[in-house]
Amino acid sequence: MLKIAYDKFYAHPLPEGHRFPMVKYELIPGQLLHEGLISEENLFVPGECPEYIILLTHTSNYWQHLRHLTLPPGEVRRIGFPLSAQLVDREIRIAEGTIDGCHYAFEHGVAFNVAGGTHHAGTHWGEGFCLLNDQAIAANYLLNNSLASRILIIDLDVHQGNGTAQIFENEPRVYTFSMHGANNFPFRKERSDKDIALPDYTGNEKYLALLTSALTAIINQHKPDFIFYLAGVDVLQTDKLGKLGMTIEGCKTRDRFVLEQCALKGIPVQISMGGGYSPNIKDIVEAHCNTYRIANDIYC
């Protein structure tokens, strides 16, 4: 059964001026329900991630400032949102949704978080609308509980997963792979285990050829027993914050390739949806829903 972490809380606490395209968090499950691809049984509401799990990834100093809303103004500006208790609670729930998704992935092969992909948050900072790094928190949770021993994080958002790279820079059990726009945010990149920095306007053919070659080699060499996939759709040519040239069909082919690799090798995969900022919300929802449709084809 396809299990999907979803909470209306994901979208509502965001401040005015930041709610588009965050309405996608409601529109995606709504569209899947409308199509009959899922039922309410497929959706689960995460609780709050416990503090001791958060502290496996983020420093105590950063976390205490975050939870007590005492971050210095410069650090709040780096996050990009006015800091509030509701936003912190939102990120705690997103992190728990990703952890819960790992358990469902062990059982069903794949699981989703409608939100998540908060890959700009490092051990001691938030950045780019990311306060806590959900997939890094979940990866450390798996390692700490001996639920996985070799983890691969596939980050195909248009922006480099700089926080994820920094968190695991000295952790050989976690292989970080980021394929992103070379000339896009963050302008100070960290070093992943494998970075592919793409020139502006990279289209389907080049993107998919590079991905196919790199990911096949990484899986064969690292031999992960769990995979996290950040399936951002800000790689689309229509995206106002991206600079690549992919079509919705190309993005769909990307997702199919990644999920087929996971399924063929029997590696559980947790998927967080990541970015998507096309001016037409229909483009964002369609591209994200394709990821679910493909998973349904492969796993159900």
From TrEMBL:
CDD domains to which the protein is assigned, alphabetical: HDAC_classIV (cd09993)
All copies of domain Histone deacetylase, residue ranges: 19-290
Hydrolase found in the keyword field: yes
Signal peptide range: none
Pfam entry (one): Hist_deacetyl
GO biological process, one term: epigenetic regulation of gene expression
MF term (GO), any: hydrolase activity
Coiled coil spans: none
Keywords: Hydrolase
Family named by the database record: Belongs to the histone deacetylase family.
PANTHER family: HISTONE DEACETYLASE 12, HISTONE DEACETYLASE HDAC1-RELATED
Protein name according to UniProt: Histone deacetylase
Organism: Mucilaginibacter hurinus
